[in-house]
């Protein structure tokens, strides 16, 4: 499939061999973020049947234009895509495939006429039902370590970094598919729960309705690393979407010639396909300095290039508004890039550094422009190893780095058994009255937490014993690697959520925070009341500020004047959440000068972390 711009939406298009076009209408926000990879696979499967296919981001989401999602704009986007397939591609039949709220929106467009078939995957019959579920998900996902809610602006509804505006909530509350006076299409396939009896109602209105189970529904939208559509479900959708499609005329349906870039005030996004199946979005400013530093934004976990809560798209466009070019990439196995040869996700596989180097080739285009690599959690891990291997990277901003080198302190462990929180974090929680209320009330699963801590402790001890009896090549000490980076003039800036699990490894490798900052030659930022994803506004503000500071000091015309070290180099900064009135500055916990720990929320280790948080709040055993 190829990138395409339709109106103000970015999408992917595949030309067909028959007269039928299929539009994939995703759901919104956090749910679609979780569905990205398998939704992409479904679109490619439908394309393989010979139908023309478009999947797209609604305005205000993903890579499309806009800063927030509005109901009218989302409905218009579906209409524009349908018109594109009819007028530009020449299809004669239209199929809409809608996921969750996307199914609800697809039905609202389909009932206007011109849609031949409709696939509804666990649709919401009423907008109020969607809003209630998002409120519940927000309470389960956006939590602090003791189970309390993350700080949010009063009166807002946000889930997993995505905020639903008051206008959107008001418009959604008025939707009720049960009130439709005619079926949205002649042929309908409804899979998954149907508590409102939509299938029976549409059948009574004269539609031919097929129904079926969606047994994988719970995992499809619960964890970005685990979502997989069953073969039987996928095959059923493909059959329904393509059955009876008439062959095209003698002319071949080809992609129309179109500009695949999308522009806004001060920025322009351009999709880039490179290497062997890699994808990235390059964001350019309106006025670009030829020798200015460029920024590479690396995936966090299995999150696609737009980022958790769309933070990476927002960051890239803000940088462009300030004159900085960036590339937000998908590593192989993530987002819109192809699968890795081993079929695994690239989290802590150093082979993924080759993807980063290929992205730098695209970003610099052969020029000797300094590169700033930016990553969170495993993205920070890969950024650190990339800067050690590639001298084109002049600086790296590492947010919530889980560890510098997996083999140094995780021998005998695989990524999936990394414990949810550090033992000291659980001990600190026991000192809080709120924690005991949740334990005594049965809300916090104390037994499963204890089993997790014991299991991970035994795994670590066993791994070290194996290491002693089977010695191999010892990884080079982290301090030596950092010293070498500083000798060549490279910069490392580190940012952490207060109490993040990665602070343990920072202390193990570099010592207490003040000593770590001295070794790095840069401040170590600790931000209070921010979760591991770094999606909150205060965390993003610090991240943006540090990137801009590095870009300014690395710019050739300013480097000679300002030098390579900031005035505050070697000092730690504690950064409170100033934009939120209820936020408080992080204060060092007792003994933190010796341990490198600060008090505050302790996030999980990225991939699978949100699932672990939801499981813990729901009373299930934490997933490690």
Layout: helices, strands, pairs:
Elements lengths: L1 E5 L2 E6 L5 E6 L3 H19 L4 E5 L14 H19 L3 E7 L1 H10 L6 E5 L5 H15 L15 E3 L2 E3 L1 H7 L14 E5 L6 H7 L3 E5 L4 H4 L10 H12 L19 E3 L2 E8 L3 E8 L8 E4 L13 H11 L3 E6 L22 H12 L6 E6 L1 H12 L3 E7 L6 H4 L13 H7 L3 H8 L5 H24 L8 H10 L3 E7 L4 H9 L2 H8 L3 E4 L9 H18 L1 H7 L10 E3 L16 H4 L13 H9 L7
Parallel strand pairs: 3-4, 3-5, 5-6, 6-9, 9-10, 14-15, 14-16, 16-17, 17-18, 18-19, 19-20
Antiparallel strand pairs: 1-2, 2-4, 7-8, 11-12, 12-13, 13-15
Description:
- This protein has 624 residues and is α/β, with parallel strands linked by helices.
- The strands form three sheets. The protein has a ten-stranded mixed beta sheet, sandwiched between helices. The chain has an eight-stranded mixed beta sheet with strand order 1-2-4-3-5-6-9-10, sandwiched between helices. It has a two-stranded antiparallel sheet with strand order 7-8.
- Helix 2 (71-89) packs across helix 3, helix 10 (353-364) packs across helix 11 and helix 17 (502-510) crosses helix 18 (513-520).
- The two termini are 35 Å apart.
- The model is unreliable at 417-426, 458-471, 557-605 and 607-624 (pLDDT under 50).
